[in-house]
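Ops channel
N.P.: pipeline sanity check, posting one input/output pair.
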């Protein structure tokens, strides 16, 4: 005992050498189990508080390893003494240290029923008169819940009242904070309805703690409340949903409170963002979305400091930044009809505000919601949104002009093709911004230009020359940031201009040559972007334009792999992918150099590194003095229950885990590159196929969805390459090597449909499966047998998608409405949910798989499948559904009809009312799909359709209006043509043909060329009497068909044959009609009449 007393005194000395000697001595003494009782003696009877505290700290360090070696009497003595110390020790730090020891022992004793006195003791302390006792009780509760929560679960109802009382402790802020931490520990144990109900009652008291703490300046506790609420918001059970009005009001109060620290306000805004992400339907149900937007939109106008700097936007904790994040979350997740109107009203009200801050907020609010509300923005683009943005571009203040440039970029990215249609209004203003006096405006103008040009075509040509002069000047600037933005803009311009970019190619490539040799770390992004631009130019203008300098750029990209820069590797993979695209089979010699690099990037270690979590903390632990040593020994939270530690552990710094994620984009680019090499070199990739399967299967299981998405797509190209590399004889199933790749790909795709939670990955899996099945069936009929094991699970996946039962759909819906019932969504909210738009890309991809499966198994086998799926499909055609849902369902019916043929006849009476309703719909895509589906049913359903022709013609007639959308009119023409082909006797051709011919030639959807022109050619071939009156209109239409090389050759030749027949039968009448044609049309038609295709244009 005396030796231990000396060691304790020596450990508290400031002298390092003395402490090291004491540590060595204690290490020897601590091997004896009796050391716990010896330390207990000093915990109870130590002469000074620091000695008693140190004894408790050392007990905590050793008790886990020595507890099992204690006798029953010793254990009882230790437990009793600890409770006595917690209750009676006069020193707060010693009481806390004793509680630390008790928490470790409880982990080992309570589960075995060996410390029945502990819980009653804590309950008594939590209700005691002394503040310290109440605080320690809750600290211990938190530690116990964290470590043995499952054991304590039966006591949760009893603890509930104690926790409520602690959160509402009027006498002590310390007790309230301790109770808050105990409540936080309960979150991971919310499994039963009873648990959820108990936690619901704690939300309001927690918010009260947060408000009181904000008022008293304890912002750390405010942040902790926000963190707990955020965690509850993503819980699958509706813990927080009934309290959302109070939660949102609490968060908005804090986020708007300019007296709080930026970090606190940021955390409050995160509560709003997370509620939007996980409880968007509840927000809509409780009419909270306008409340959120009304509070957050004005914060966009608040600069974060005394200076009015655009740098505020880049500062994560600035109000304008966190407000934008919250508004974006609401726009992305909430029903759009609740978001767009209030934001538009805010923007319109403040775009002319005297304060440039408010004008900035007006433009920025509209920009932020553009992605989430793209359909609403599309509908009001010309009338409301574009005037706001144009006004911002011309604003007197650079901050507003910069926001407007950002808005242009957002419109260009998410509102296409409508945004590009206004290029004559937008581009001149953006060009002016490129010369703005403010560098931030110029930077955002380059972003806007790059985003806008990316979606243009020939429209860019009138601007190309002055644009390239300006961009070339910027490219030669020494400003790397400007060069990087300029490179992006040049790439967009090249992609838009295509081959007509050729005159600028040499100058651009010459300017890039020095940039791809840069090696300084600050220059990495410019070098990487330069690779990318070379690839884009090669695709745009063709291989000949870059062939001479391409080896130098490829060599530079390969050398970049030696610089250990992930960005260089990422962009090199993308560059090589582009080169493969324009070299195609000629890229094969490069495969030995680039494929191993792609494999290597896919296999890169994620960089999970265990190291010092905080260098300062480690340094502090090595310092001397009583306080430093005590802090190092205490080592952190009370919940620590570490096992016996090795030599020197008490003086080493804490260690943590950090995860390096810089390789994520590199992995995605490498996975994409593997697919590109397979896609464009085909059989030459055969040597790498088997290893690529293994690499991509691993990538498809990677932690981040971007990598999984690229791997999912690349597997499709791998199947294509395998089919070419390992061919089979005609009429024989695919080779064993190709089947191995196909089976591996199908395994990944079906696994994604079943288990993947990211919708984009699941949608890609559906698309890849559909495209691969169609390609295999087109390659050889013998491949039908391959589909047998896959048809049923694929149909099951589509059915699950239609019912919102895929894992990726449940991931969102569970968070929204988990545990429905008394606290679940009301009928009104369910109606809201029905009206909400589904993920359009996911649903389109899912239903596109059905015609592929129908083709694979045959109409007879697929008929009962379609019969079982039809009720689910028709659910999407209800009038309450959004237009995209209805359009998707009708398109699915049309595509399946094309595969099922006459087996669709029993469904005519069920489907035609749906189609008739959609033909009258207000959205062009819906009318287009309905017209197409009507024609397909007429084509395949036989005579059962004829009795409906009169009604259908009435419904189709308005679609031939000159004011109608070109796509809609073309599909209406296709429907009528198919109806004529299927039953001309049931059609009043004398009335129908003039209307049909007046809508020609087809202007947009040339896929309708075959049925439309085929129908007219057939009537000519049959010398149908009703065709003769429209021949004067037909001849110039047929001439337009003959000259259009985008129309299938067989159709162009067939109209030539029809004209030849007419010329022979009606020479006198045809001669002036042919003579009146423009020379190029006359020449093209003449060649087609002679059975020869005209040469391709351009």
């Amino acid at each position: 005992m005396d030796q231990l007393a000396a060691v304790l005194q020596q450990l508290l000395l400031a002298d390092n050498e003395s402490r090291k000697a004491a540590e060595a001595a204690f290490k020897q003494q601590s091997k004896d189990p009796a050391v716990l009782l010896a330390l207990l003696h000093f915990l109870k009877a130590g002469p000074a508080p620091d000695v008693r505290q140190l004894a408790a700290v050392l007990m905590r360090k050793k008790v886990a390893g020595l507890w099992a070696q204690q006798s029953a009497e010793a254990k009882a003595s230790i437990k009793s003494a600890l409770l006595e110390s917690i209750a009676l020790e006069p020193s707060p730090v010693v009481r806390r240290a004793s509680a630390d020891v008790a928490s470790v022992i409880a982990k080992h004793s309570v589960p075995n029923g060996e410390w029945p006195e502990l819980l009653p003791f804590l309950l008594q302390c939590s209700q005691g008169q002394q503040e310290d006792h109440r605080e320690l009780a809750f600290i211990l509760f938190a530690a116990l819940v964290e470590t043995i929560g499952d054991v304590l679960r039966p006591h949760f109802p009893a603890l509930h009242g104690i926790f409520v009382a602690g959160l509402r402790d009027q006498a002590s802020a310390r007790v309230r904070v301790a109770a808050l931490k105990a409540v936080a520990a309960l979150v991971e144990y919310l499994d039963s309805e009873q648990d959820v109900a108990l936690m619901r009652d704690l939300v309001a008291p927690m918010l009260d703690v947060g408000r009181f703490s904000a008022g008293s300046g304890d912002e750390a506790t405010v942040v902790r409340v926000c963190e707990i609420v955020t965690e509850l918001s993503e819980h699958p059970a509706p813990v927080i949903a009934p309290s959302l009005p109070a939660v949102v009001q609490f968060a908005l109060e804090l986020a708007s409170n300019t007296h709080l620290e930026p970090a606190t306000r940021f955390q409050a805004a995160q509560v709003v963002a997370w509620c939007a992400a996980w409880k968007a339907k509840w927000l809509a149900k409780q009419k909270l979305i306008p409340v959120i937007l009304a509070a957050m939109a004005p914060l966009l106008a608040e600069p974060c400091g005394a200076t009015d700097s655009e740098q505020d936007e880049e500062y994560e904790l600035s109000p304008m930044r966190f407000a934008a994040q919250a508004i974006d979350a609401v726009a992305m997740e909430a029903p759009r009809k609740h978001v767009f109107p209030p934001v538009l009203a805010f923007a319109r009200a403040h775009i002319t505000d005297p304060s440039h801050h408010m004008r900035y907020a007006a433009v920025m609010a509209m920009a932020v919601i553009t992605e989430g509300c793209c359909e609403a923005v599309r509908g009001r683009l010309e009338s409301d949104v574009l005037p706001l943005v144009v006004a911002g571009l011309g604003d007197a203040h650079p901050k507003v002009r910069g926001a407007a440039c950002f808005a242009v970029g957002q419109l260009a990215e998410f509102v296409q093709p409508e945004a590009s249609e206004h290029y004559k209004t937008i581009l001149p203003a953006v060009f002016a911004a490129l010369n703005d006096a403010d560098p931030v405006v110029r930077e955002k103008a380059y972003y806007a230009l790059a985003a806008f040009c990316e979606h243009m075509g020939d429209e860019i040509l009138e601007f190309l020359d002055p644009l390239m002069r300006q961009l070339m000047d910027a490219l030669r600037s020494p400003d790397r940031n400007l060069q990087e933005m300029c490179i992006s803009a040049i790439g967009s311009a090249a992609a838009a201009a295509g081959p007509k970019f050729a005159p600028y190619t040499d100058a651009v490539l010459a300017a890039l040559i020095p940039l791809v040799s840069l090696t300084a770390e600050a220059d990495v992004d410019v070098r990487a972007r330069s690779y990318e631009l070379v690839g884009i130019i090669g695709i745009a203008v063709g291989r000949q334009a870059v062939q001479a300098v391409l080896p130098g750029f490829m060599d530079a990209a390969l050398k970049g792999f030696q610089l250990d820069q992930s960005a260089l590797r990422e962009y090199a993979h993308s560059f090589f992918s582009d080169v493969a695209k324009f070299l195609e089979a000629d890229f094969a010699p490069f495969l030995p150099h680039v494929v191993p690099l792609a494999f290597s990037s896919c296999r890169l270690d994620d960089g999970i590194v265990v190291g010092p979590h905080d260098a300062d903390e480690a340094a502090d632990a090595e310092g001397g003095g009583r306080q430093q040593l005590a802090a190092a020994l205490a080592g952190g939270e009370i919940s620590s229950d570490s096992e016996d530690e090795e030599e020197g552990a008490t003086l080493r710094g804490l260690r943590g885990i950090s995860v390096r994620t810089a390789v994520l984009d590199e992995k995605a680019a490498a996975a994409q590159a593997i697919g590109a090499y397979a896609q464009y070199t085909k059989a030459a990739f055969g040597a790498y196929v088997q290893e690529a399967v293994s690499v991509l299967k691993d990538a498809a299981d990677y932690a981040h969805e971007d990598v999984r998405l690229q791997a999912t797509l690349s597997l499709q190209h791998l199947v294509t390459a395998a089919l070419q590399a390992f061919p089979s004889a005609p009429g024989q199933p695919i080779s064993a090597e190709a089947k191995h790749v196909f089976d591996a790909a199908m395994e990944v795709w079906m696994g994604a449909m079943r288990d993947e939670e990211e919708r984009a990955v699941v949608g890609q899996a559906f698309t890849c499966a559909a495209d691969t099945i169609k390609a295999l069936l087109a390659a050889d009929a013998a491949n039908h047998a391959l589909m047998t094991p896959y048809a049923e699970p694929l149909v099951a996946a589509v059915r699950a998608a239609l019912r919102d039962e895929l894992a990726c759909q449940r991931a969102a819906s569970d968070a929204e409405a988990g545990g429905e019932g008394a606290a679940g969504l009301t009928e009104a909210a369910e109606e809201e949910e029905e009206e909400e738009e589904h993920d359009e890309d996911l649903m389109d991809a899912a239903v596109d798989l059905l015609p592929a499966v129908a083709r694979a198994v045959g109409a007879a086998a697929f008929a009962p499948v379609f019969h079982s799926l039809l009720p689910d499909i028709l659910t999407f055609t209800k009038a309450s559904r959004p237009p995209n849902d209805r359009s998707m369902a009708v398109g699915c019916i049309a595509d399946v009809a094309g595969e099922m043929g006459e087996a669709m006849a029993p469904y005519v009476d069920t489907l035609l009312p749906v189609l008739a309703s959609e033909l009258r719909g207000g959205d062009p895509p819906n009318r287009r799909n309905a017209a197409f589906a009507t024609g397909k049913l007429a084509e395949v359903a036989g005579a059962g359709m004829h009795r409906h022709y009169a009604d259908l013609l009435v419904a189709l007639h308005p679609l031939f209006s000159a004011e109608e959308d070109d796509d809609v009119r073309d599909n209406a023409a296709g429907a009528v043509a198919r109806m004529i082909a299927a039953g001309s006797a049931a059609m009043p051709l004398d009335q129908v043909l003039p209307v049909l011919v007046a809508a020609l030639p087809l202007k947009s959807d040339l896929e309708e060329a075959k049925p439309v022109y085929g129908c007219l050619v057939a009537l000519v071939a049959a010398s149908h009497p009703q065709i003769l009156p429209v021949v004067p209109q037909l001849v110039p239409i047929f001439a337009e068909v003959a000259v259009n090389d985008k129309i299938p050759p067989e159709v162009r030749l067939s109209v030539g044959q029809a004209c030849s027949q007419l010329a022979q039968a009606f020479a006198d009448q045809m001669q002036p009609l042919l003579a009146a044609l423009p020379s190029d049309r006359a020449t093209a038609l003449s060649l087609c009449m002679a059975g020869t295709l005209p040469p391709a244009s351009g």
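N.P.: looks fine end to end. DSSP finds 54 helices and two strands in the chain.
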